[in-house]
Amino acid sequence: MGPKARIMVAAEEKAAVFIQAWWRGTLVRQTLLHAALRACIIQCWWKQKLVKLLEKKRRMSLESYARQEWAVVKLQSLVRMWCIRLRYCRLLHAVRIIQVYWRWHSCHTRGFIQGHYDLKENQLNLQLEISLGSQACRVQQCIPLPIKE
Hints:
Elements: H1 3-110, E1 112-120, E2 123-132, E3 135-144
Antiparallel strand pairs: 1-2, 2-3
Protein name: IQ motif containing F5
Pfam families: IQ
Organism: Catagonus wagneri
């Protein structure tokens, strides 16, 4: 083989090595690109899972807080209702006492009727005492009842 042929063979070998290196580089870059894309997909999926997990924890803590607040408000409402009812019962008792004294006073100043009755056979015996201030009037009466025998 001549020197020209050797140079030609060396150039072809050099070109073949260059093509092989380029192809291997392309395969490596493609493999690295696929690995990077897969890693990116996994990272995005994991970030979504973390966001959902954090959102779930946040929602649970918010619901727990809302339940506690509701319980506090309910308890406060019951205590207020109890205090108001206690005050109402006291006022009602005071009103009843005032009404009793007022009625007693009004009966003694205006007058009142007091009496009793007896039913014997076919007669009604009625005894009434009517008081008007300082005056008093007593009434006794026997009323026959129309009972058929």
